Queue: 2 jobs
Job 1
Amino acid sequence: MTRRDPAKLVLGAWTGVVLLFLFAPLVIVAIFSVNDSTISRFPMSGLTLGWYRKLFGNAALHAALVNSLIIAFATVVLSCSLGILSAVGIHRYGGRLAGGLRAFSLTPMMVPRLVIGIALLSFYNLLQADLSLLTVIAGHVVMTLPYVILITSARLVGFDKSLEEAAWDLGAGTFTIFREITVPFLKPAIVAAALMSFTLSFDEVVVTFFTTGNDNTLPMIIWSMLRFGITPEVNAIATITVLITGLFAVVAELSLRQAQART
Amino acid sequence: MRAKVSTVLAFLAAPKLWLIIFFILPMMTMVLYSFWRVADYQIVADFTLRNYQKIGGNLYVNVFLSTIRLSLYVTALSLLIGYPVAYFLARKVRRFRLTLLLLVILPLWTSYLVRTYAWMLILGTQGVVNQALMSLGLIDAPFTALLYSDVAVTIALVHIYMPYLILPLYAVLEKIDPSVLEAAWDLGGGRLRTFLSVILPLSLPGIASGCLFVFIPSMGAFVTPELLGGTRSIMIGSIIAQQFGVAYEYPFGSAMALVLMGLIFAAAAATLRYGRPRGTA
């Protein structure tokens, strides 16, 4: 059908408006981050990179950034190892239980972050455990694990089991097969899952809020700044985090797509 | 292919163990705490139903009801706004489909805190909307009621969670076999008729899971109502969070969180039950 489709025009225009709604707020934050007035309003009096420069000199922010990175890296490593084991395990050995096992693994997705956070806080309270970066990491892994399992399971659907069986017949052990065949096949999904759990952890504020002791993270700093009102530094930190996570999202998406094109 | 029991356990047990220790046990702790009480700033293991009775009071019932109402608004708006987008992506474009899909997913990767904050800049007294209206001469003084209201919280929650609804909907709509639509056309169904009696029923599973992806986090929202709701728009998430702060009322907070989870599970069960595809397809 080559005739003009009025529905397509209307729906296309609507999609454009919705994308504008999704992106305009972020663009506004970025614009105000280079505004040289302390009041975030148009018309802007001039441009400056001063707010970014001020961030570099802020020691509390440095410490928070380091904490955020430690938490995010630890979360990625733990969550990806556990998630890949889980997805492969369910795929290989799940049998009739596969559906139920997968559903169980995904339940944390169905629980609001707030509840994950306060449940962990209650648990730590009961055990009288000291809150630290470790207690935060445990919570972030719970939060990101379902995403890793979801992404790797989706990739495993297209996995040719005869490859593993051939390797088995040639005498390879279970872990050799896992390392030499399964993991390379999963690589694009692992890259995507790692990037996704990194951003989820790096941006998380609610779970961190309830599970951290005296250690601050970057989102926690933004959160405490916002409770005292809008300051221009927030625009700069916010813009930096959005740019980093946006870049990660694009890389992850391209990684998955290339893999799909190849198989 | 046969595997040793120990291998199977390594693959299946390690991840499950993490979830059991850091997710299931914490949830059970909340169940336990919800029947305990606080005395002299100590949580005492003393069985009581008082926490649940307290929730039955007018104050808390009203906050629960307004949280449900607001979450339903957010879900309905997300569906109305997101459905045409999912439909367009799944059935009307070819060339830029993947790029457009990436654009829809991209905001999901950015911080919900930052996206909430952006609405403070837009809806505030000195915000972008007020300034635009004033410079156009439509109003003399800024609206102070924009920020810190149900409207602000609703807009921001739609903004944050709507992409979660588009994804499953897209997946379902994309799978509809074109020959089914052609058959509907050939049988003389018009555009609207085909949509209402073929496409819409076939996309029900996507609508159901998409709506849950919006409704659940909205019910438990804490950051957004805290920053944009002020004292006028209070959601249950903020009240629950307070109990785990200086108030130190873990038992009461746990009871409220469990009621919240009960409501969420009821909604999920009902939605998934009625969200099955209808008809013969």
Note: Chain A touches chain B through 87 residues (CB under 8 Å).
Job 2
Amino acid sequence: MSNIAGKAYAMNVITPMRWYKVWLNRLIFWAALKAPNVLNGLLTLSLIHYARWVIIPRDKFPRLDPSQPKEELEYSYMMFFSNFNGSWAQYVDSFTFAIPSGLDLFWKMNVRYPKSVPLTPFHDYIQHNQIDTSHYYTAYPMAASNDVKSAKNVKKALIDFNAASSNKSPDEFLEDYNKLLNQLQHDFGEMRPTPIVSLAAQAVKERYMETQAGNR
Amino acid sequence: MASKSGNATALTVLSPIVNGIVDGKSFADITRERSLRIPIHEKSPLAKVPNTYLARLFILDNVFYESLPGSDSVFNFSEITSILSDSARKKALPRKDQLKSKYLVFSSNFYGDLDEYLTGMWEKWSYDDNGQQRDVRYIWEHCVAFEGVSDATSFIRYIKRCQLDATLFFNGSTDDSLQEQLKALYLKQEFSKFAAAHQGKSAADVQQAFKAFIARVQPENLSQPSWQPGQSTP
């Protein structure tokens, strides 16, 4: 089991909702998509790489063959997948503190959703409905979501600066170079494990090394 | 489509696993064990599947019973009726659901077109499993109707039958190609080191070193030098 890959954490949550409320929940998500300011709260949580909500009506679980038993469910289900940096508690708490009303809006239709405030029942709810990941992969284990975004700024600024500075005198070059460093100071930073990414990521690594050595 | 955010795509796949047991192990447990044994980081088969940002595999064994206290409605009528009646109180409890199949869940965030991505999965997914080379069929082998999959076209058709559309896909990162993201990360890393190493040097020295730096890192060459997908050490 590994919910962790380097600096990223994979969260999977599945929660039931009454089947006749699915349309209302879809409407809420649709409205959130149409009014991007609703999602601005999520943008402030800059620790997220990508996240998604998937609503599965109770009769829409994939059935590929008549030999597969047909699901007979009381509830429809909402699955939530997130890829974020930091610990589980940091993430869940940041939702509660940054966007409690938006969070409640998305989960409101779910059975026994306790609301995001106060914190402890919300922690219990997520833990109760969370499923561990078997294999988790990120293309950049050493990079946080903010690193990916800031790297884009660095790349563009570096290319622009190189094009603009090629024929300058050393003094003019240095002046512009210092301006560039000032401009990018929030985007700099080396990405390292130093000395380990986290105790959890280290545990994943050690467990993996054990399985590779055939010691399990 | 809610599964797209710019050029980034959210793929959600629920593949039902055959109900059955072989040598005392259920097909779901066999699939889980195989998923758990996949090598991590740069050795993951997903590092070879072009344009995968982040992806995961897990088994959905069942859904959960909502046994914790809580309320999901603004006004819950049963809370009134159940004050007066024991049977109303019991009926106000959440219902119990049981899945009849277990599902292999594959969730990926990637750049670009779905068909192209799935072709990449079919063609490139490979890894070493204690000396045995495994392809993508090894993970999906015990899923319902997967025996009909024999090439990229039938694999794409199969995965699309298992696909669920996202109701909301949130992109908190970028939607650039993976090669673009990895090159940018490489440049951020290298330029951060360069800036730290050249503080306080003369204008001529910095200018000369910068020229050599640009020649080395080749900012506009996406293929190299760069970070490799899944690279776990700087």
Note: Residues 145-184 of chain A form one domain.
